[in-house]
Design a protein that fits this description.
alpha/beta, Glucosamine-6-phosphate deaminase 1, seven-stranded parallel sheet, 9 helices, hydrolase, 282 residues
Length: 282
């Protein structure tokens, strides 16, 4: 690999988590990532129950395929999660900072209904008040809720092409934000970066014009405050991203790199993500 490329791009799959405290798991492909994530979510729910309290989880829409699998697992076992609290990481906003309508095809709230809550036996599903999305008109409510619940048992998520987790976008190049400052950012409304809007458009046929410019996101403060971190990479372009997160500098320019400051982090990647990135013109 040419010397002008960052050294972390040379990290082989065998050394992908070497010299880090991150617990790395490599699975075959996207369906296996989804199965692993569904199983892990249920495992955290069961562990919390054994400790005598209903779980509180921060969960993403992206990855997404785990939810129908989890619903099937819960239905088959007749396992109730009525008292479990699921806090969605983020949601798209309109230009006047209101949630996009739940009927909007890109609404994360709508997706959770279609692909998880509506698939569950109603007697097993979380109570309506336990299905949480950050409110753009009351962003402080998330931390208040977390405090009332005694903290977050685990945060689940994916990693964006610019290293973001949830919609915690890295600062623009002219902004100087320290790691400590970035780690303390709370739930807030914000602009999405061009990189995020571009890569998110890939899932809707490449039509970037329909990707909203604004979003509300759980903050780094709430994410890093969770007792466990479980993150997943299932896209081929995440081969480079995962290496930057694990072996690049810990910096606000790559938000997910801050996961390395946490004491309990797992990263699960598809086999093709673990492979060295193929950086060449084809």
């Amino acid at each position: 690999m040419p010397t002008q490329f960052p050294d972390y791009l040379k990290i082989t799959r065998e050394n992908l988590a070497k010299d880090t405290a991150v617990n790395l798991t490599i699975v075959k492909d996207m369906p296996d990532v989804a199965q692993h994530m569904a199983t892990a979510i249920l495992g955290i729910i069961e562990a919390a129950k054994q400790k005598g309290h209903p779980a509180t989880l921060i969960v993403p829409v992206g990855p997404v395929d785990q939810y129908p699998i989890l619903a099937e697992m819960l239905n088959e076992r007749q396992y109730s999660i009525r008292d479990v609290m699921l806090i969605n990481m983020d949601e798209y906003l309109t230009n006047d900072d209101q949630w996009v309508d739940i009927s909007h095809p890109l609404s994360f709230r709508g997706y959770m209904n279609r692909k998880f809550y509506d698939l569950l036996n109603p007697d097993l599903a979380p109570l309506p008040e336990n299905r949480i999305c950050p409110d753009p008109d009351n962003v402080g409510a998330i931390q208040q809720l977390i405090d009332q619940r005694g903290g977050v048992d685990a945060c689940f998520g994916g990693i964006g092409i610019n290293g973001h987790i949830a919609f915690n976008e890295p600062p623009e190049s002219e902004e100087n934000v320290s790691v400590d400052e970035f780690a303390s950012l709370p739930t807030r409304n914000l602009d999405l970066t061009r990189e995020t809007r571009t890569i998110n458009s890939v899932t809707v046929g490449g039509e970037i014009s329909i990707i909203p410019w604004r979003a509300v996101t759980i903050g780094m403060k709430e994410i890093l405050g969770a007792r466990e971190q479980h993150f997943y990479c299932n896209r081929i372009w995440q081969s480079s991203v995962a290496r930057r997160v694990l072996h690049g500098p810990i910096t606000s320019a790559c938000p997910a790199s801050l996961l390395r400051t946490h004491s309990n982090v797992s990263l699960t990647v598809a086999d093709y993500v673990a492979e060295l990135p193929d950086i060449r013109l084809r």
